[in-house]
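Researcher: Quick one. four chains, 332 residues in total.
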Amino acid sequence: MRLSDAIEQFIKTMMVEDAHQIELKRNELAEYFRCAPSQINYVLATRFTPEHGYVIESRRGGGGYIRIFRIEHDNSRQLLYTLNERIGDTIDEHAATNLIEQLYEREIATRSEALLMQSAISHQALSLPLPAEMKGALRAKILKSMLMQIACKNHQSTEEANHALR
Amino acid sequence: MRLSDAIEQFIKTMMVEDAHQIELKRNELAEYFRCAPSQINYVLATRFTPEHGYVIESRRGGGGYIRIFRIEHDNSRQLLYTLNERIGDTIDEHAATNLIEQLYEREIATRSEALLMQSAISHQALSLPLPAEMKGALRAKILKSMLMQIACKNHQSTEEANHALR
DNA sequence: GGATGTTAGACCATCTTTGACCAATGACAT
DNA sequence: ATGTCATTGGTCAAAGATGGTCTAACATCC
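Model:
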């Protein structure tokens, strides 16, 4: 079996047991699999992306860590469809607005969250001299990032939220 | 847990009890945590700056002390305004994170809003091939746009509250 | 054999902790 | 008043502890 697949399985097994969130040490994991630490990054970059339904958060320095959050299974299918099919690599403001509207109507996002997302991807927020394709790509990334946050937020404790904010 | 985080928590706990202003002895605190006195300075320098909403005053020599004040704001609108001013045309992720954390700690933004803003301006959300200056400018615009939204929302609820009182 | 996916490693960025050395203050002796 | 010195806090740089990025070499799959 490929190393990357083994690491992927290992992490996913950890997540099954332990709710929707795990914390790991890059060097320890690399040590365990006797591979280069950057191998861990490779696995995360190719198999634990927002498109796969995961959010990653990390910190360097003493006491550093890598945390992986997984979205809840209930909404995950719907959300992943939204992320991959409806947003994709780019999205214009109009489509994004419609999408946000829908999420609000379906009570996946609160009114407050919907308004905040809207303001983050509005033309005003992205009013810089950039090619339209770049703006579309940016909007897609930002929107995906925020949607994953909403999907994961219920798993994070307040304490962890503080960390996430640092 | 990291020593610095423990010290930070310790101080913040003191502040809550003690009306947003405390006095401490550097050496005593260092003794308590069994660390180098300069560790205290490190914590203050990285977590209790004006950017975090704190001001520090100290004196050396016999009877020396360190006083920490939490900056008060008349109301949330003022703070939002101040922060908006502080952002300027560009802001890096670290500074933005500090701002958002401050809003959360002062209950101007909810946890959900804080996390959402954080994810919108995170480096992951802006991970496209753009020069760093452009990313900083984008982050500033996005953040301001979101802060405006929150200011708006808060203002509306204030209006509603006023209305209800009439 | 070319496109795509893996792996390792060199080099980088960030955060924390400690310690040597510096500066200010106040008590006290002269 | 002035000098001395113990008492405190401040600065800065080095070392340590992590994780990130980039790229070349290698492997695998059509």
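The longest helix of chain B spans residues 132-165.
Researcher: Thanks, that's what I needed.
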